Amino acid sequence: MIALLTAADVFVPDGDEARRRAQEELSKAEYQAAKPNWFDQLAADVAEWFFGLFAGDGTGAVAPLALTLITIVVVAAVVVALLVWGRPRASRTARGGSDLLGEKNDRSATQLRADAERRARDGDWNGAVVLRFRALARGLLERDLIDPAPGATAQGIAREAAPALPQLTESLHEAATLFDRVRYLGTTASETDYRELAAADERIQATAPRLGADTQAVRA
């Protein structure tokens, strides 16, 4: 037989006792571990303030005004960044192996010049001329004086570099013409051709570019 409990057998704590027992229960480690820390509370307060800017109830014109001001600030920051640093461009490392004058390789201008000199020592003037002009073009690219599109020609590279090196416009054109004659027209290069091209390359390396408005437009 199951004994029935009477009302007298049930303990019902009063208000103070119930509060004390609740405090004891909540002070246990498992409850304290689940309690938000100061950082959680700060993040929640910041989020509540930010989203409150856009609340339509009870704020009158504050929400649209805040949205407008934030939009203006963001757009202004982007415009200033573009004016100061220009449009993002691929890094030199990424562009190092790009197609340049119909050939893809990762040789630097220094490496190409060394290869050209080796060809010259072997008396391969055609190979030396082709490699030396590639070195010249790669050097312009490494100095950010040109940003040629895929398939750019030697004459196109010369024209693109001319605004930055106006005093060497003729040398750039002659170097590109020699490259085209040897590379595409089957002209046999001489030692004189190579030495003149190498001298032009050295002058280009030693000349400080003029970074005027025209040059900035080319580089953008």
Low-confidence stretches: 89-97, 213-220
CATH T-level topology of the largest domain: Four Helix Bundle (Hemerythrin (Met), subunit A)
Number of strands: 2
Q: For this structure, what is the CATH class of the largest domain?
A: Mainly Alpha
Report the sheet with the most strands, covering strand number, pairing sense and barrel closure.
Answer: 2 strands, antiparallel
CATH architectural type of the largest domain: Up-down Bundle
Strand order of the largest sheet: 1-2
Structural class: mainly alpha
* Number of structurally distinct domains: 2
Order of helices and strands: HHHHHEEHHHHHH
Individual helix count? 11
Q: Judging from the principal axes of the Cα atoms, what is the shape? A: elongated
The N- to C-terminal Cα distance equals 95 Å
Mean pLDDT: 77
Please report which band the strand proportion falls in: under 5%, 5-15%, 15-25%, 25-35%, 35-45% or over 45%.
under 5%
Helical content (DSSP H or I, runs of 4+): 55-70%
- The radius of gyration over CA amounts to 37 Å
